[in-house]
Design a protein that fits this description.
The chain is α/β, with parallel strands linked by helices. It is 35% helix and 10% strand. Pathway: Ketone degradation; acetoin degradation.
Amino acid sequence: MSGSTVVVWDEALLGYDMGDHPLDPVRVELTIALARELGILDRAGVRVVAPKPADDAALTRVHRPDYVAAVRAAPDDPFFTGWGLNTPDNPIFDGMHEASALVCGATLAAAEAVWRGEAKRAVNVAGGLHHAMPARAAGFCVYNDPAVAIARLLDLGAERVGYVDIDVHHGDGVQAAFYGDPRVLTVSLHETPLTLFPGTGFPEETGGEGAEGTSVNVALPPGTADPGWLRAFHAVVPSVLRAFRPQVLVTQCGADSHRLDPLADLRLSVDGQRAAHLALRELAEELCEGRWVATGGGGYALVEVVPRTWTHLLATATGDPIAPATLTPLEWRALAKRRRPEREVPLRMTDDADVSYLPWQPGSEPDAVDRAIVATRKAVFPLHGLDPHDPRD
């Protein structure tokens, strides 16, 4: 098992397709194609595993049975309303239940492989649908695969699961699923809910009764770039994870924090996102004996950003990271141009960004990022016995 990685993939995962919609499955197709061309899926110790759909027993650990029944029925009724479905964000599409259950099944397979010791790490880039609620579709998400997988880990005996969400949007559905469960720590870094969907994820959201401190939210100002984002990550995430001592780390690695993303206003680079993946892997190594389950998530710069960012994620999970200056293969460029001829195809795996950052220090006149850091540390650090004003905590 040592060093092995499961990549859960089958072309059937491209069936999660809402039509003319920002969540275009071409981003996943191009990710897998880029990873293949760069040899990442052929590395020693990598197994590509096809998923099976999650069954109703797995889905209803998070979702209400009547909602699952509604998802099944909706495609047969063009006038269907309710449950958050048949909206611009969540249009109905043929095979919606089957496609959504397969995404959940893929993340379940990743979680099971890691927990059972069949692999050290596992990745489902088609997953990360973190906005779905128990009885409502939301934010392009029908079923909440990270929450379904975390529930399975708990059922398999996990006593402490750490979840870190680096999507530009708050991981509201996962937080809601476990808000009162002290066995699950949810950490989300996102653009402030004052300016972006879903309007939740304030620092004061720290967990329900009996689970105080297990929801951690870093709400960053619009325009935050690599240095500020990485400063915020390192000022909060390692400390709360170390205090919580998770046995397994589950991450949602949405790529929509990038400066080119059309749906949000953070300003990260592919290089900054790559640095975040490396930091998450290091934390899994330090705290969880390497056990790491990674999913994709948002990301709407379909050609320019998502395939590169998630290929870096796959490389980080399967072994050595890809050198930033690596060229994108000619075959992949041709495929990307065929799939989306209107898009600019990147030539290298880097944005040539400097990902150095100044560690957070208290006491100086804070900028907006520092105010966000301080707000989170004040809200949640004392609940873990940590000093919000001590940079060593």
